[in-house]
Fold this protein.
Amino acid sequence: MKKKIALVTGGFTGESVISLKSAAVVEKTIDRNLYDIYKILIYPGDWYFLNDAGIKIPVNLNDFSIEVDGQKITFDGVFNILHGSPGEDGKLAGYFDMIGIPYTTCDQLTSAITMNKGYTKAIVDDIEELHIAKSLQLFENSTENQEKVVNELTLPLFIKPNNGGSSIGMSKVKTWEELPEALDKAFGEDKQVLVEEFVSGREFSIGCFKGKGNIQVLPATEIVSSKEFFDYEAKYVAGVTEEITPGRMNEEEVERVNRIIPKIYEKLNCKGAVRIDYFLQKETGKFYFIEINTVPGQTETSLISQQVRAIGMEVKDFYTQIIEEMF
């Protein structure tokens, strides 16, 4: 008998647009011989399934069920493709834990911690061969904090919302005159902001997932952007960024990255597929951790899909491994 899988998408943030695009790809790619898929849209105060007639069927939040044609549908598991809150920050994971439904992504604690870039970096900081850019975590957009940044950090800087995604609210600051506007932009997205020194290096993004009981590291994608940094436009607009998969690394670099990535996955107690962004510093080749995405995009231009295909695996089979790992 086919398993009934809820594909959850939507969300409470600006990333909901990307989530819907990801969900559309997953929905058409997933193996329908194995699973019956029900796309559940989650918005503030409005959780529903859209039937074939375009009618919204509300989700019963007591047990995360829906009623279709007079029949109650309960789910064997959840394929979570909801970027941002509540799908990536642990809120949804906590809800599913309480009602006893397995899901494809990290648990409540890991999801909450990894949404916070500053906390994540503090946890992975002691991993051998991994380096962290010098940074400050700000909890208030004040004159005192601006002075602290000027006194303690060196230009250029990256300013980013600590709990954000898809590079929304992110800026690169080259002069101190640009700092106030960049902080305003970041604080407009989040109450916590991370300010970190710029690391000059080649940028990579790499997928890692647990399938058939083993942690598998995918080939890294090298990001060569015509933009100043890998921002929202560079991520989601075709032609702005060159993405090279596998990325250009020598044998030693590949081996080192493949040592570090599983340690990050294990240290953060990850589940399902994650994507880790990093720099290899130009002068030294050192591995600098940028951030981790625990609900990586699955759009047509997403990096994970490119990397899966690069190892000769069908994306459909990749999804099957992710789903089966939760049972």
Observations:
- The radius of gyration is 20 Å.
- DSSP finds ten helices and 18 strands in the chain.
- Confidence is low (pLDDT under 50) at residues 230-236.
